[in-house]
């Protein structure tokens, strides 16, 4: 198919992103078991940072390569005002990229829309009250379904049902609210949105489900640890609150970007066990929190150095020429 200059650039950028993302994502998928084993030796909060970085690395790095190498090499070395043939393989890769990125963008937009609607609904039917352990007012919803959630992305709000307020003693209620405050301070709802926006390797194929489930699990553990802050009495209170709320019945399904006190009942036993046993000492891997940041900065510096080399741009342009055939 013959395309003009700018359309050919767009097609090549999409095709390059798809192929790079596919290659890097496939490599990351193979490393997931090792990454999860490594994360299991870290503190939960550090593990969440590592798993989120691993999940977002393929799209972020692929996008940077396209912007820093592919597009500049085409604009600098490709003759302007020319129409050339673009092969079907390049077109197919570009279309797969558009489909994958489009589906992930819709997934994120739909989740944000539903979450905003859920917050508006709760504000319509609920009212604000002051509860122990929380400085800001909390939205309390009348009804029979038990739940305590953090809803919203930019300005998250704590929302709790009246049965939970009535059932939990003040110490347990304060510990449960501290758990949700930990989610708010770490911006976990925003991070969930980033995971939804991260494109799949192929359209509509979630290839990192195991990694994302592990991130969710470690996120809950990290919020538990932040809430109790090494206080054994508070740890017992939070464990008791989890069990008490779980016995009240299944929590209702809410919007996607909503963090619940009981996000997954299947993990309840392990969470309670962690809260009741003595906190383990920090592992050696936890003493190197800057290793990932240093590695990321080194990768960006190497990429920036490559963009300043004419030989690099020429080599990339030759690869683009091969891709269009």
What is the strand tally? 7
- Helix and strand string, N-terminal first? EHHEHEEEEHHHHHEHHH
Q: What is the rounded Rg?
A: 24 Å
Biggest sheet descriptor:
5 strands, mixed
Cα distance spanning the termini: 10 Å
Topology record:
Layout: E1 2-3, H1 5-39, H2 44-77, E2 84-85, H3 88-125, E3 127-129, E4 138-141, E5 148-151, E6 157-161, H4 162-167, H5 170-185, H6 188-197, H7 209-228, H8 232-247, E7 258-260, H9 268-276, H10 291-307, H11 310-324
Parallel strand pairs: 4-6
Antiparallel strand pairs: 1-2, 3-4, 5-6, 5-7
Overview features:
single chain, 325 residues, 7% strand, alpha+beta, two-stranded antiparallel sheet
Tell me what the structure shows.
With 325 residues, the protein is α+β, with helices and mostly antiparallel strands. The protein has one domain (2-280, 289-324). 66% of the residues lie in helices and 7% in strands. It has helices spanning 5-39, 44-77, 88-125, 162-167, 170-185, 188-197, 209-228, 232-247, 268-276, 291-307, 310-324, and strands at 2-3, 84-85, 127-129, 138-141, 148-151, 157-161, 258-260. The strands form 2 sheets. Strands 3-4-6-5-7 form a 5-stranded mixed beta sheet, sandwiched between helices.
